[in-house]
Write a structure and sequence with these properties.
Blueprint: H1 7-33, H2 51-64, H3 84-103, H4 106-110, H5 119-122, H6 127-154, H7 156-182, H8 187-209, H9 211-214, H10 223-239
């Protein structure tokens, strides 16, 4: 099992892979706009770069975001036992802003397929469209991450119960993104997705707080960690003047330093051996 890296390394890895994923799906939109993407099983039908394709790409970004955290080679499976709350909350917020900033370039690739007055056509310049898409991204990421985190740290029992709901998000969020890209940004839709984002962040925070309660098993300790812990134990004993390095209880006796030239004291021996009583005893 791999050791747990530092918090900063985890955070930077999440942001870096999130940026890579956003750029990858942006490349998919660009390839579709150039007519270089073909439909599965056909060499003639190309994928059109329209709001529907943009919605599918945006929904897949949200659906795949939780896998940036999962690492089965690590002791904690990718979800830290300490510092998890700021990691998941900041990861979702910063990741959502990165993805939204990259998606602001999509109207240039959609070109004439971007409908004027809708999010797909006004995303590069309309603050309301940008805010709506940001709420959608944060809400989708937080809810998907909540489900996946509960499946990973809860074991097979939670995974079996939550597998179907998580697979359902693979269809829910792409269809929701299609609806967003094909329609203008309105006040009610922005409020709805803001509520989805806030509730998702709240649920994610609670699950991160209960991470060690849900996964109650004690983390395994490597040989290097055991050796370091034992060295700290010995240093603490030496600091307290307990020079006997045996870990057994009941023998921690404080030893006094000997003066130079002195011999260790030996208890005196009796002058004659002990007498055995007479047998049979005299009456």
């Amino acid at each position: 099992m791999e050791p747990v890296p530092t918090w900063a390394r985890d955070f930077l890895r999440i942001l870096g892979v999130c940026l890579f994923g956003a750029v990858f799906f942006t490349l998919c939109v660009w390839l579709a706009s150039k007519g270089l993407l073909r439909e599965k099983g056909s060499l003639d039908d190309t994928v059109e770069a329209d709001p529907i394709w943009a919605g599918i790409c945006a929904g897949m970004i949200v659906f795949m975001f939780p896998f940036l955290f999962v690492e089965f080679k690590r002791i904690d499976l990718g979800f830290r036992r300490t510092g998890l709350i700021p990691l998941v909350v900041l990861g979702v917020l910063c990741g959502g802003m990165i993805v939204t900033a990259v998606m602001m370039t999509w109207p240039f690739f959609l070109d004439d397929q971007a409908i004027p007055g809708t999010v797909s056509g006004e995303l590069a310049s309309d603050p309301a469209s940008i805010l709506l898409l940001l709420f959608f991204t944060i809400g989708g990421m937080s809810w998907c991450l909540s489900v996946v985190m509960l499946m990973v740290i809860g074991g097979f029992k939670f995974a079996l119960w939550l597998l179907v709901p998580y697979l359902g998000t693979m269809f829910i969020f792409p269809f929701a993104a299609m609806h967003i890209f094909e329609n203008p940004a309105t006040g009610p839709s922005t409020i709805i997705w803001a509520a989805v984002a806030l509730s998702g962040l709240a649920v994610l925070t609670v699950l991160a707080m209960l991470r060690n309660v849900i996964d109650w098993t004690q983390p395994s300790v490597s040989a290097a960690e055991r050796a370091e812990s034992y060295q700290q134990y010995l240093e603490d004993r030496r600091r307290r003047g307990l020079t006997n390095d045996s870990p057994l209880p009941g023998i921690d006796v404080r030893q006094q330093p000997m003066q130079p030239g002195t011999q260790p004291s030996v208890p005196p021996r009796p002058n004659h051996p002990p007498q055995r009583p007479q047998y049979p005893p005299q009456r």
